[in-house]
Amino acid sequence: MANPEETVDFFNRVEKLQTEITKRFSELIDSLRTREAELLQELETISLQYRDKIKEQEGMRLELETTKKLIEENINYSDLRPLQQDVIAKIEEKLKHMRIQMQNRNIEFVWREQLISDVTRLGSIRVTEGCGFQKGSKIDYKKKVRPALTVTNKGNGEGELDFPWGVAVDNLSSKIYVADHSNHRVQVFSQEGNYLFTFGETAGEGKMHKPLGICISDGRVFVSQFSEHCILIYKLDGVFMNQIGCSGKGEGQLNNPYSLAINEVNGDIYVCDGGNNRIQIFSTQLSFITILWQNTFRRPVDIKLAHQCIFVLDESNPCMHVFNSSNHAPLHSIINRGCTKQICCSYFFCLDADCNIYMTDFSTGFVYVFDKEGVLIHQFGGLHQPLGIALDINGRIIIVNNKQEDCLQMW
User: Fold this and answer.
1) CATH of 141-410, one of 3.40.718.10, 1.20.120.530, 3.30.565.10, 2.120.10.30
2) Cβ atoms of 353 and 131 closer than 8 Å
3) Which residues are bridge partners to 303 per DSSP?
4) Which terminus in the chain has less CB density within 10 A, N or C?
């Protein structure tokens, strides 16, 4: 039996330790709050500097406009007109350049109280790319009646595609990454549809074979290798970095992986392990974490994380399964698959800011828009075997189209 005096001494030490821990945490919190205030003040200073720069450039622009007007009104001699035209052309070029600069520098920090609240609640601020679309922005999907731009042709040359599958947009640069499936590579295009570069063709580490799904997060490009049963990881410029998985049914092994998604909060990687009928999670350091919903699916083909939910597109009926992202509990299943159902054959989908679901139908050639409850609210298309779909920050819908065209379309 314990000595009463020893018991009292033990509890006294525990209480003293608790007091010390509370004190240290209070000091830490005070320090973090002080640093938070310093960072917010720095942000405000940067904002003011940019605003002053814009005001200065606006003054210069007005002076140039005035100078241009004076030259046009006062130089009327025929011998001086070539000089007049040359000076005016140079002024107009300078004004054009300044307007572009001023548009790019239009940076504002608003709702300071909201920023403080978010820092306090979340602990950090991170650029997220989960939905591929700016929060609060709206897509007027009812106006998507024809593509605004169609690029590329069928082939194996630069900018040509052969049976493209996945597509992803880098929100920071607006570059478009396409999994050029039958050419065994990824091709990168500008937001205007211009070909930029290709990667994944070089022999050795990082060489692709039938890439399928593609995802961009935190400066990395993740590409699923359907036939090679792995995920290849590259830098945004196409430099190979690492690999996840190998062929098999065990933990961390893959069988015909389709698409994947990144948890933008902690960097975890969710892979549709299609042939094994499950989802696998890997850490941002690429180590295996866990297996989810083994044999719950018929064949999971695409996955997205948004609004505290995990959306999984499956070959079952109903085909869209929604889970709680915190405890992975099933919430509900929506959207019927089948020739006489809501969709016939779908492999890819994406989400907008309102959690509307944009889904391509490979068989019918249509893009269907569902609300978060699975109610069909719009459809458009008439495409030929559309597969990958993504949204960019400008409200455009990016689609890869197969069969005769083998093209990239922007709606």
Assistant:
1) 2.120.10.30
2) yes
3) 312
4) N
